[in-house]
Amino acid sequence: PVVRDLIHQTLVNVLTDKSYSSTEVPEWTREISEDIKAKLKELALENYKFIVQVVIAEQRSDNMYMRCRCFWDPQCDAYVQDMFLNDSLYCVATAFGVYVY
């Protein structure tokens, strides 16, 4: 819950009251991913590397499918994601934690 909460709070802080803008989305995705990564580092989880993926798309009737494949240790590695949406856009942010032996 801690990681999901920090992802959720970042999405709310950055995207509340925003309307989709193709020119601003690159900056928002950079800001969100860097903020989540910095907050994950503050947790000081030894031996973990983090990968953060952020997707922002315009809210339309089109469907979007996302998939991720990786080779990892299910005993130690994990991911958490959260979603933000409003009338104009939606965002999915995923943080992967990979244990380094």
Summarize the structure.
This protein is an alpha+beta fold and 101 residues long. The chain contains 2 helices and 3 strands, in the order ααβββ. The mean pLDDT is 93.
Number of helices: 2
What is the CA-CA span between the terminal residues? 24 Å
Which sequence of strands runs across the widest sheet?
A: 1-3-2
| Range of helix content | 25-40%
Rough outline: globular
Report the uncertain regions.
none
H/E topology pattern? HHEEE
Please provide the count of β strands. Answer: 3
Q: From the helix content, strand content and strand pairing, which structural class follows? A: alpha+beta
What would the average pLDDT be, to the nearest integer? 93
Strand content: 25-35%
Question: What does the main sheet amount to?
Answer: 3 strands, antiparallel
Rg is 14 Å
Task: Please tell me about this protein's structure.
- A three-stranded antiparallel beta sheet has the order 1-3-2, covered by helices on one side.
- The protein is of the alpha+beta class and about 100 residues long.
- The protein contains two helices and three strands.
- About 20% of the residues are buried.
Keywords:
101 residues; alpha+beta; three-stranded antiparallel sheet; 2 helices; 3 strands; 32% helix; globular
